[in-house]
Amino acid sequence: MGGEDDQPQPGFDRWVSFRGQGEYLPPTPNYTLNVDGRREKQKGYITDELTDYAVEWMKQQKPAEKPFFIYLSHKAVHANFTPAARHEGKFANKKFVRPATAANTADNYALKPRWLRDQRNSWHGVDFPYHSDLNVDQYYQRYCETLCAVDDSVGRIVAELKKMGVYEDTLILYMGDNGFMFGEHGLIDKRVAYDASIRIPMLMQCPSLFSGGRTVEQAVANIDVGPTIMTAMGLTPPPHMDGLNFLPLARGTSTAWRDNFLYAYYWEKNFPQSPTVFALRGERYKYITYYGLWDLDELYDLQADPGETKNLFYDPAHRKTAQAMEAKLYARMEELGGMAIPLNAPKGGINDKRLRDRGGQTGADFPAPFVVEKPLNQNAK
Question: What is the pLDDT of residues 149-175, one digit of tens each?
């Protein structure tokens, strides 16, 4: 559930869940799942076990009499990555090539915010990941190995749909809940506005609704999932629901669509290295700004620079674009009631340490656009 309560939620007539992030394997003999409000012992590897529950429930359905909806949300691939025994070591001999932006070079940090270089040596940076000596290369290998059981799970669900005779008429939506960095920009984890952090995989199929093989280029967001599923069910999304139905995009038909979307992350004391960030991501340009922080804004041409390596915000040739996107971002924030910053009390540990022998006592240089050679105000008295 992502919280401490795993009780059944309204609207579901079958419920299997766990508290918090759950466990890949039961940590104690009496560790339990919540099954329809009852405590049931977790028997084995959680990805396989959740799939067992899902397939068992599917076998009981009679789709010719009543349609069904199943939401199968795996713990995988949440850290700490733990592969199923059958996948352990599968990619141990596969070489992981770190992103070019992982290197601590002057070129990589040219016109980049100070906080970004400082975060290298933090809980969410490659120089001190999770305050440990974690090998990011091996970490990525275990991530891939852990994901293999999710692949198996999808295969089992698809196989059961085919047995039921409803595969061609079933909308299958496969997606992650957040991006994840394995060295991009010197970071790990998520939270920040770079594409490696905010973009997620999304695959969709329903042969009776649309043909396959199409890549949707428009900016689809997770808020669009609910309206899309409801429309596929023949329901009308309620007016208070955010998001848009993207079935027309899947079909390749013309439809009015957004030209950008808003991204927001609010600073957490538990993870003080990541600032409050607001970003507007369009199909071509992305604008990023920070709140409560004396640092650089960012503008990227995602078509020419998908890795977000060259900050164009201070380039005179892109000044009008930067100003226009900045204005659009604040207008969008005003429209959505986002001009007030929430304050949340910290929960859990405060991950605020840096490693001394990797420059832990010094910060990044001050941004060049903010540094001048002589006084600017000649009228101070």
Answer: 999 999 999 999 999 999 999 999 999
What string of H, E and C letters represents the secondary structure of 269-322?
A: CCECCCCEEEEEEECCEEEEEEECCCCCCEEEECCCCCCCCCCCCCCHHHHHHH
Residue 75 contacts residue 22 (beta carbons within 8 Å): yes
Asked whether 123 and 271 are in contact (CB, 8 A), the reply is: yes
d(CA 139, CA 91): 11
Cα-based torsion angle of the residue sequence 230, 233, 235, 239 in order, rounded to the nearest 10 degrees: 10
Q: Where are the domains of the chain?
A: 76-219+258-367
Q: Between the CA of residue 315 and those of 24, 114, 121, 323, what are the distances in Å?
A: 48, 18, 29, 12
Residue with tokens 């990797």: 358
346: left (phi over 0), alpha (psi -120 to 50) or beta: beta
Statement: residue 4 has pLDDT above 90: no
Select 76-219+258-367's CATH number: 3.40.50.2300, 1.10.10.60, 2.60.40.10, 3.40.720.10: 3.40.720.10
